[in-house]
Amino acid sequence: MKKAFKNKPIIILLILAIVVAAFLPGCAESGFDQEESSTSRGVLEVNFLDVGQADCIFIIFPEGRTMLVDAGNNDDAETVINYIRKKGVKRIDAVVATHPHEDHIGAMDDVIYNFDIGKVYMPRVTTTTKTFRDFLQALSDKNLKITPVKGGMTITLEEDVDVRILAPNSTSYDELNNYSAVLKITYKNNSFILTGDAEKFSELEMLKKKYDLKADVLKVGHHGSSSSTSTEFLKSVSPRYAVISYAKDNDYGHPHREVLERLRKYNVKVYTTAENGHIMMESDGNTIKVRTSR
């Protein structure tokens, strides 16, 4: 009994060590728990959701603010809403609709109805589709207004994260895709560029504006279409990682072979929602960890 009593502090320390270890987060390269939150660790979390032939990106900032960039197709509402809810999120501080195509704002109305929304951002462009009307109706029902965005603007959410609008840089375009809001999100030494469906014309405008396009991660424009990701733009961004959001066997042949070859030529590691499912990237400001749902 005396020996057991003398060793009691050591035993208690061992038990505490086991308990603490059980709660330490793992560092898996693939597969992740949607309910895990990184906000308490000072981490920027960028989630590229698998919404088929569409775009949806959900971002949790280091201090807990949130942003949604696009919301997939109309039938992706359940996927988007459930994904965000499993993150323990009830409020989306900023909603960005890059442009009013259905595969980018399809489920936006449902998201607006299901969450507390801060501000809504979108380029100054409209369409006559039912999807766009549903989006506007949801804004009206929630007493929300659109803040128009254009190149050179910033969106302020947290002091340590810079959210800069790089496009659009003109007031009118022949192609609706070129109205796309392009965002550069910078956290300390790491940057992400999210391009919507911006095509070569818009890319050239960004180059002419001499914006700082260098980034670690490029969300490839227009689902990997050859209409986007020009050589000049890709060289200027010089990403380490690229993410392409598309559906297998889609009618457009996305991603196009030329784009994949271009990314390979510049040694960019490519992740796709079609192959990898949901893609989560975590940045501590210096390094980026990538995890996928399959």
Description:
The protein is an alpha/beta fold. It contains ten helices and 15 strands. The strands form two sheets. An eight-stranded mixed sheet has the order 6-5-4-3-2-1-14-15, with helices on one face. Strand 1 and strand 2 form a beta hairpin. Helix 5 (108-114) runs parallel beside helix 6 (130-141).
Topology:
Layout: H1 2-6, H2 8-23, E1 44-48, E2 57-60, E3 66-69, H3 77-86, E4 91-96, H4 102-105, H5 108-114, E5 116-122, H6 130-141, E6 146-148, E7 154-155, E8 161-167, E9 182-187, E10 190-194, H7 200-208, E11 217-219, H8 231-237, E12 241-244, H9 257-265, E13 269-272, H10 273-276, E14 279-283, E15 288-292
Parallel strand pairs: 3-4, 4-5, 5-6, 10-11, 11-12, 12-13
Antiparallel strand pairs: 1-2, 1-14, 2-3, 7-8, 8-9, 9-10, 14-15
Helix pairs in contact: 5-6
